[in-house]
Amino acid sequence: MKRRTVLRSLAALGGLAAAQSGLVRGAAAADTAGSAAGLLAQSFPDTQGKPQPLSQWKGKPMLVNFWATWCPPCVKEMPELDALHKQHPGVQFLGLAIDTSANVGKFMAKVPVSYPVLIAGPGSIDLMRKLGNAPGGLPFTVLLGADGAIKQQILGPVDVGALEKTLTALAA
Asked: Which stretches make up the Thioredoxin domain (predicted)?
């Protein structure tokens, strides 16, 4: 179990290091058609254990944030993402937790957000890699247009000002 914790911490640090080096990628960095379709074909349980297909949000711009309760940069940006969600009702926000349902439930009781949070579990690191996150670091945010195409990938904490502009453009 300790090895898993160390690996998760390294993944989070990798995401932070990438963010500090300015790693923000656009859609050209990945096979956007296959990646986006693969993402929208997924289904994950919500915090009550009910499966939620991501396809239910097709046709709407989406912000998908991969995060974990044990990732300090992830935890820090959640209130910022929640505020952006409230400012941009035309964009579907979604949190995909790379964590256990029990950990997420405890965390959400302390730090609630107004957007859906689903339990993707540690196995979804491969999904993040297919979406352009080669190191598998956290946090990782993917922005999809209403057409389902990947418009932007952000490895590491989001820049709220830059994200605000992107969200406005997506919802237009």
From this structure: 31-172
